Amino acid sequence: MEPFEAAARLGSFTRAADELSVTQSAISQRVRKLEALLDTQLFERGHRTITLTPEGRELLIGVRAALQHMTAATRALRQRDDRPRIRLGADTSMAQLWLTPRLAPALADSPPLMLDLLASDTESELMTADIALLHGAGNWPGFTATRLFADAVFPVCTPDFLRHTPLGTLEDLLTAPLSDLDYIHWNWMNWGIWLTEAGLDPTRATTLMRTNSYMAKLDAARAGLGVALAWEGQLTEDLRTGRLVRPVDHAVTPPFGYYLILRDTAEPAARQLAQNLLRAET
Asked: Helices 13-20 and 24-38: crossing angle, nearest 10°?
């Protein structure tokens, strides 16, 4: 591909040959082989000039992108980096709401390292990390789990929504528009479970929207789209600033929680980073 790209860029087989330190006939032959392979003419050939055909211009776009990627990858391989590479995973809500404000000070107190940050709501993917922030019962074989916070779950909405839709009792929630979470993971709590735990009949509730993303549900509540369920340990800033409020005081605390888990075979740099993150929580 390099002979083709050089010829296209320079507009000449001869100049391409000079740049690549080969003969002009070698460049011409490589281009003809490429045209034969693709069964497509890539250049219009004049007496002393060459011009890309429409097909040649289209190929050039892809070839340039591929060569740029190859150059970047080669440069990265040649650059020696002795820093330990640490893979840190978190589900999407923890990555945005809990980890982000704590990551800078945790890294500042850690030895130099290369961080590979993975945000995913798939537990099997997060389990490939050295350190992960996970929701569950606290038992992951091959990892040491430290509980970050209890899983108190309660309704939230905006102050403006509450002014227009007074909610003074638990019963009032049944007539309010609710933003709900799909029951995808066994340890996630949705409105059906929460209302049942609160002693209410979930079949009487009014669902405004349902999503498979906790962050999408929370953003909907922030935009005034009804009432959503929130996890206390993730919502400190929204409640402190008054962006979101609790329309009722009731909370449900299931047996699950959020944990920082550390692979038992993790190297010292990962252990230090895990300690720093735990220190940031206390």
From this structure: 110
Phi, psi of 135 (to 5 degrees): -105, 130
pLDDT digits (tens, 9 = 90+) for 171-227: 999 999 999 988 665 567 889 999 999 999 999 999 999 988 888 999 999 999 999
DSSP state of 96: I
- Answer whether 121's CB lies under 8 Å from 185's CB: yes
Rounded to an integer, what distance in angstroms lies between the CA atom of residue 133 and that of residue 123? 10
Tokens 């100049």 appear where?
15
- Helices assigned H by DSSP within 176-254: 191-197, 214-222, 236-241
The CB-based long-range contact list for 94-101 (8 Å cut-off, 24+ gap) reads 94/133, 94/135, 94/234, 94/258, 95/119, 95/133, 96/215, 97/234, 97/235, 97/237, 98/133, 98/148, 98/233, 98/234, 98/258, 99/133, 99/277, 101/237
* Average pLDDT taken over every residue of the chain: 89
Q: For residues 42 and 34, is the Cβ–Cβ distance under 8 A?
A: yes
DSSP state of 244: S
Separation between Cα atoms, residue 65 and residue 77, nearest integer Å: 19
Beta-carbon neighbour count of residue 113 at 10 Å? 17
In tens, the pLDDT along 55-105 reads 988 988 888 888 888 877 777 666 566 788 999 999 988 998 899 889 999
What residue ranges define each of the domains in the chain, with the CATH number in brackets? Answer: 2-78 (1.10.10.10), 85-150+257-281 (3.40.190.10), 153-241 (3.40.190.10)
The model carries a pTM of 0.65
DSSP 129-188: SSEEEEEESS--TTEEEEEEEE--EEEEB-HHHHHHS---STGGGGGSEEEEE---STT-
User: Mind listing the pLDDT tens digit for each residue in 239-266?
Assistant: 999 999 999 999 998 888 899 999 999 9
